[in-house]
Design goal:
- The chain is of the alpha/beta class.
- The protein has one domain.
- The protein is 36% helix and 14% strand.
- A hairpin with a 2-residue loop joins strand 2 and strand 3.
- Helix 6 packs across helix 7.
- The radius of gyration is 19 Å and the shape is globular.
- The model has no long low-confidence stretch (mean pLDDT 85).
Length: 270
């Protein structure tokens, strides 16, 4: 009966989900701004609800599956995409690197995982000249969706924004459908998934493609839940098949490996 946790970093909130034998026992949300300079509240919360068999940590752009204790500065730079001359700058999600270091030194069994581009299930030709095919938290959300599968606002000020969002989403789904033999269902996660009208409108736009359904966890995000599910599978729990389906243990390379543009070989992280 593994006890595991997943952490999802975001620009608005950091979400924590703890599972016991695959079932949620804790969901907690932290304001990102409060962790920008001091990640201790999140680390303390993790410690209070341990011990754990595994913790799936926030991994940014991702790395091949690796224990946090084995992470060095280069791997940290790959996860946050920071150049040597940008060290100390307010770039990306505030406090991410500090939190990663804190997790690495916490003594807890923390692992960092891959982004989409690291996964062997994605053909190499789709990775050319791409860095971000989906960050590590998107892989976690997919894991949650896999397990889940076995009022649009009327104010004029928001109308055009919603129209743009829905149209862009529908275009993206239609584009991606060319890479999928048969689309069984379109799953919407994140904050938009909690807005019933938005999901209904997207379903109408994609009626000829596949049914659309909202994927909503509890207070914590689907990515936090997904990270905990992956930790459960890696720790030998009931979700081992999800880890195998994603090829998580076989993830490899870096987010820069597939660039085929002039000057790509001069990029340095640090």
């Amino acid at each position: 009966m593994p006890r595991v946790a997943g952490v999802d970093p975001g620009s608005v909130s950091f979400d924590l989900c703890v599972l016991q034998d695959g079932q949620p026992v804790l969901e907690q949300v932290f304001e990102t701004g409060s962790l920008r300079h001091d990640p201790r509240p999140l680390l303390d919360a993790l410690r209070r609800h341990g011990p754990y068999d595994l913790v799936y940590g926030p991994s940014g752009y991702g790395v091949p599956l690796v224990a946090a204790a084995d992470i060095d500065e280069l791997r940290l730079a790959e996860m946050v995409l920071v150049r040597p001359d940008e060290r100390g700058a307010a770039i990306g999600i505030g406090g991410m690197r500090t939190l990663m270091r804190g997790l690495a030194r916490s003594g807890m069994p923390v692992v960092f995982g891959p982004g989409v581009i690291h996964l062997p299930s994605v053909p190499r030709h789709r990775k050319y000249n791409r860095i971000d095919l989906g960050t590590a938290d998107k892989v976690c959300s997919v894991a949650y969706a896999i397990v889940d599968q076995a009022s649009l606002w009327d104010e004029p000020a928001f109308a055009e924004g919603w129209a743009a969002l829905l149209e862009g989403t529908a275009k993206a789904v239609r584009g991606l459908s060319g890479s999928v033999p048969a689309v069984g269902e379109v799953v919407v996660s994140g904050r938009v998934a909690r807005i019933e009208g938005a999901v209904a409108s997207l379903a109408a736009l994609l009626a000829d493609v596949a049914p659309v359904r909202a994927l909503v966890a509890g207070p914590a995000s689907t990515a936090a839940h997904g990270g905990a599910l992956l930790a459960d599978g890696l720790a030998g729990g009931r979700h081992q098949a999800v880890v195998a389906a994603l090829g998580l243990r076989e993830a490899a390379g870096t987010v820069l490996d597939h660039l085929r543009v002039a000057g790509a070989d001069t990029i340095r992280l640090g």
